[in-house]
Structure formats: C-alpha cells, structure tokens
Known about the structure:
Blueprint: H1 3-28, H2 78-81, E1 86-93, E2 96-99, H3 104-110, E3 114-117, E4 122-126, E5 131-138, E6 145-158, E7 163-167, E8 174-181, E9 184-191, E10 196-197, E11 204-208, H4 214-219, H5 264-290, H6 296-328, H7 332-363
Helix pairs in contact: 5-6, 5-7, 6-7
Amino acid sequence: xxxxxxxxxxxxxxxxxxxxxxxxxxxxxxxxxxxxxxxxxxxxxxxxxxxxxxxxxxxxxxxxxxxxxxxxxxxxxxxxxxxxxxxxxxxxxxxxxxxxxxxxxxxxxxxxxxxxxxxxxxxxxxxxxxxxxxxxxxxxxxxxxxxxxxxxxxxxxxxxxxxxxxxxxxxxxxxxxxxxxxxxxxxxxxxxxxxxxxxxxxxxxxxxxxxxxxxxxxxxxxxxxxxxxxxxxxxxxxxxxxxxxxxxxxxxxxxxxxxxxxxxxxxxxxxxxxxxxxxxxxxxxxxxxxxxxxxxxxxxxxxxxxxxxxxxxxxxxxxxxxxxxxxxxxxxxxxxxxxxxxxxxxxxxxxxxxxxxxxxxxxx
Length: 364
C-alpha cells in the first residue's frame, strides 16, 4: 500500500470520528454545565490514585441516541465533562507542564487527539485508532475529582461503508483523568494492578475546544517555539519517514530473518523487537550529537533523524504485512489491523527519543 493511500485512510478515519464527535456534542450542548470543581496545584496528580472505585453499569447504546428524554438522568460526571470536545493542549514531561502550542513539533503530534463524553456514561477517544468505553467516578484521597475510563471497544474506518465499524483487534486500555480546573483535566493510562496512573507514561492535559486552560498557563515551563517544518520534526509519523529510498542504510533494512513473513504476528514481533533494540543506540547518538546544542531547530533535526530510523523499521514491517496480504489475498481490514498494531508500537517506542528531545528543549 502506498504512503498516499495510508495517509488518505488516516484522514478519512479522523474526519469520520470528528463528524461523529461534533454531532454528539451538538446533541448534548443543551445539558452543558461547567460548574467549577477543579483544584489546580503545582504538583502533578498522576501518581496519586489509590485503589479501584466501584463499578457502575452504563448504557451501551449512546451512539444511537439522537435526543435525550426530558426525564433522563445524566451519568455522574457529565456536568463536568460532557457537552463539548476536549483536545490536547499540554503534556507533563519530567514533572514539568509544557504547552504544546509553544512548540510546533508537539502541536503537530497531538493535533488529532480528541475526547468526547456522552450523557449515558460513555466516551469516545480519538487517538491513532478510535476507542470507546465507559467513564465513572474514581475514589482517591479527595484532592482531585477523578474519573476512570474503561475502554471496551476499538474502531476502524470502513471505506466501503464510509463509516466507523467496531474492530475485533486493538488495545483496550483503561485511563484515569484528574479535573484540574473548569477547562482542564490530566489524562494518563491507568494501571489496574497497582490502582494508580501507569508509571513511565507521559500524561496529557486535555482542554475544552476553543477554550484556554488556566492550569496550563499558571504552571507551564516556557520552551522555545520550533519554526522548522514537518520534515525536521522529531515527531514525524512513520508514514512520512524513510522516503530517501536508501534501504541499504536503514536501521531495519536487514530485517529479513527467517519466518518474518510467515504471519502477521511474526512480522509484528520481529519489527517491534528491532525497534526496541535500536533505541539505546539511537539515544546514545542523540545525546552525543545534541551535547552543547542550544538551538531548538537543530535539536529537532537531530531528534528527527533518530526517530526516522525507527520509522524506517516500522515502514519496512508495514511493507512486509502488505506483501503478506497480497500473497494470501487477505482483506484490507486484516492488513490494517495488524499494521495499526505495529504503528502503535512505533509510537510508544519512539516516545523515548521524544522524551530526550523535550528534555533538551526545556533546558536550552
């Protein structure tokens, strides 16, 4: 599958989800209530959750609702979360709040992340692939109003039907959110075993669409704005990397191990392992080349070169999956599911290099 086709698929998927989310917001705006319950502090709450709250059952059919009965009781938390789109406006790196709008690389990375909360206790999360599930209050020490998001469905775009359809594959991760002020909440993956925010994750700060975040403005660390174009961004996607065609110089160019093309799972495992094994060396190269560099654009260029190596490995793996699809005559949706898993892994693994870039950018 060509890069253009992959890009078109992603754009169609994003547009389909946004149309659904905007429609949901339109139906729910009348019930919007932005009463304050935030407790902004200088400390991040992402590691303070303790225990798991009681489960609450919610309707599974919120997506089909076109209007709400006059006597319908909204799910707990809807008055705080419902009635609007939420979009990423900040990240927490090394316990420092960063406004993504201060840096074009970060803004580009998160510009397609949205959350929407329905009145019947369900949410839709647009990330790499759309996800849906239930939200419910989560009991902690009382310092923050918290909600637990339990993913139970993942979606993919069906080009033939021109709509989102439920996918059998996809990661069903739980998340926890902390209400920080009227317009802001912190969002991070939840560890069901420890009952806390998952360690080594980068929390995101979601803000109501078209609104400002008092919390981010009060706590953010100033970083220089990177005016470089997407070609020099350290967060360029795997779809745009590896375009030089010089496969001989690719970190993953020798990925032809025996059996790597026998199944989608073996391709996924092989290329995920190759990316993981490449990270320590790429980080070492980054720190060596970035030493003494204070120019943000130069740091972005160095970082992008390292992330690009991982993207080349990912691209090659995706190409192997496409070859397998063609040789077997498999459906496009089967290929897309497996390719999505590899790209998910690429996004997580490349985050280590992005962390290093952010660390450099904030200290320069």
